[in-house]
Structures are given as structure tokens and as C-alpha cells.
């Protein structure tokens, strides 16, 4: 259980980092010109999702579900772990609803083929990451609180 708790917290922290970084970048990215924004989207973020964000979110969800089973005897830590698991499910769903369609569209654009409604895609992408950031903080906070509850109950 101790090892699972640590692995879970590592996944939760790593899952929070990319969306929080996107939120911190948001003001500057909203000021980029169309072609510069496109270049950033196509070059800077390549590999983040498949190699860092996605696996961390899935890992946080999987380990939260495992902890949920192991914490079934303690109502308070069980509910906090359930909140975390729901946050990770919602985080993954947010990606598929808001971010993945934008990523797919942007992948095929060139500066010459950039559609006139590209700012709407930018807003959708940024909103998706802002929601993911909020959900990741909720998940991480719930897991930390559940661990504190367990420590207090044990001590």
C-alpha cells in the first residue's frame, strides 16, 4: 500500500504539470499571431501528450482506482480517493472532447491553409487545458488529503 500511495502521488503530480504549464502560458499564447501560434502548436507540444501527459493521467486514474479498492474500509479516505478518480476520468474526457479535435485539425494546417476561425480553435484548446488543470489540482488535493486522513487514523 505504501508503494502504491507514492506511485499514485507521483502520477498525480506529473499529470498536473502539463495543464498547469499551459495555464501559465495562456496570456502569452493568446497574444501570438496566427502563424506564430500555429508554429508553436505544431512544434513545441509534439510528444507531450503521448509520452508525458496521457500516460500520467491514465496512471493517476489507474492507481487511484487501485487505492479506492484498498481504502474501502475507511469511508473518509475512500470518498477522497473517489473524488480523485472522478477528477481523472473528467480530465481524460475533457482532453477527448476539447483538445483532441483541435490537435487533429491543427496537425494538417499550414500557414496558407489556416482557417479564418482559427482563434476559436485556440480558445477551445486553452479552455480544455484550463479545465484539465483545475481537475488535476482537485485530484491531487484529494489524494493528499486522503493520505493525511490515513496518517491521522493510524497515528
Describe this structure in words.
The chain is mainly α. It is built from five helices and no strands. It has helices at residues 2-30, 34-43, 48-70, 75-108, 118-154. The longest helix is centred in the C-terminal third of the chain and has 37 residues, at 118-154. The chain starts with a helix and ends with a helix. The mean pLDDT is 93.
Topology (elements, then pairings):
Layout: H1 2-30, H2 34-43, H3 48-70, H4 75-108, H5 118-154
Q: Gist?
A:
With 155 residues, the protein is an all-alpha fold. It has helices at residues 2-30, 34-43, 48-70, 75-108, 118-154. It has one domain (2-154).
Count all strands and give the number. 0
Average pLDDT value? 93
- Ends apart, CA distance between termini: 16 Å
Helix fraction bin: over 70%
Strand content: under 5%
- For the CA atoms, what is the radius of gyration? 18 Å
In N-to-C order, the SSE pattern is: HHHHH
Low-confidence parts, pLDDT < 50 over ≥5 residues? none
Q: What characteristic shape results from the CA principal axes? A: elongated
Mind summarizing the main beta sheet? none
Query: What is the domain total for the residues?
Result: 1
Individual helix count: 5
Structural class by SSE content: mainly alpha
Question: What labels would you give this structure?
Answer:
single chain; 155 residues; mainly alpha
